[in-house]
Write a structure and sequence with these properties.
By secondary structure, the protein is mainly α. The protein has a single domain, classed as Vanadium-containing Chloroperoxidase, domain 1 (Up-down Bundle), CATH 1.20.144. It is 59% helix and 0% strand. The chain is built from 14 helices and no strands. α1 crosses α14 and α3 packs across α7. 51% of the residues are buried.
Length: 272
């Protein structure tokens, strides 16, 4: 395992302005306010339908639940590794800062570009995915790994109240998946890379001890469903085209993220 220096570089260079220690960006109070009439692309009834399609969390003590907990405990081996430190950066999910997680996959430097249309597109998708995930969480509670085990170290600052919040589905994975699908649509030639980073952002929640594998899988499925629904909304294609033009301009500037080498090292860390 490489030392923490490269991991710190990954955190600092990938999110130079990001408060990576911020508690999870999924905010229940914001989602509750948004659910009846969201600021995103989808109305409340569509978001409710998407949430209703998500199956309930695994039953406590079931084979799936026990397998989740056994796998989760294995991620303790990554504490303080380069992959652990990258996961602290991935904890930031709010646009525009979170969009920099995709710099290396896209070969751009979004942190230095003016991209108001891209930011607006992703914010609206964030609002939709955030609201849908919170509706599912309100339907059936499952504790987080750091809630089940008071001694479990999260890779971000989490209050005692935060440890007791619902784990299923992973709202972070929902948001990451919707970003991944959006970037895949913006740059089809880099779709695989964009989706890979979105998935790695979900895996970061396992590294952090904030979610179980089933939580992440459900979140990713929900995020992809949210994107599919949002992409059919009136005005979405125009927003996508405007964002694509900004992304092309950012690429034409020729700047890349200096943390990409460190990110490659962190993502090469074998997972348990």
């Amino acid at each position: 395992m490489r030392g923490a220096t490269a991991g710190l570089l990954a955190v600092a260079a990938l999110l130079s302005a990001c408060a990576a220690g911020t508690p999870a960006a999924i905010r229940p109070e914001a989602a509750q306010a948004a659910a009846p009439e969201t600021k995103g692309y989808l109305n409340g009834s569509l978001i409710q339908a998407l949430a209703d399609a998500v199956p309930p969390p695994p039953v406590a003590g079931s084979p799936i639940d026990l397998a989740d907990k056994a796998r989760s405990s294995q991620f303790r081996t990554l504490e303080d590794s380069d992959r652990w430190l990258l996961a602290t950066a991935h904890a930031e999910l709010r646009p525009p800062l979170a969009l920099q997680h995709f710099d290396c996959a896209l070969g751009v430097r979004l942190g230095s570009a003016a991209t108001p249309n891209l930011n607006r597109l992703m914010q609206r998708l964030f609002d939709d995915s955030d609201a849908a995930a919170e509706l599912v969480k309100a339907r059936g509670f499952r504790a987080r790994p750091v809630g089940d085990d008071a001694e479990r170290r999260p890779c971000q600052r989490v209050s005692e109240a935060g440890r007791k919040t619902a784990s299923y589905p992973s709202g972070s994975s929902t948001v990451a998946a919707v970003y991944g699908e959006a970037f895949a649509a913006l740059e089809p030639q880099r779709a695989a890379e964009a989706r890979r980073i979105a998935h790695e952002m979900g895996l970061s929640r396992l590294v952090c001890g904030m979610h179980y594998p089933s939580d992440v899988a459900a979140g990713e499925t929900l995020g992809k469903a949210v994107y599919e629904a949002a992409s059919a909304a009136p005005g979405f294609d125009l927003d996508l085209a405007a964002a694509r033009a900004e992304l092309a301009a950012a690429r034409a500037a020729g700047l890349t993220n200096p943390g990409c080498a460190a990110e490659r090292i962190a993502l090469a860390t074998p997972l348990p």
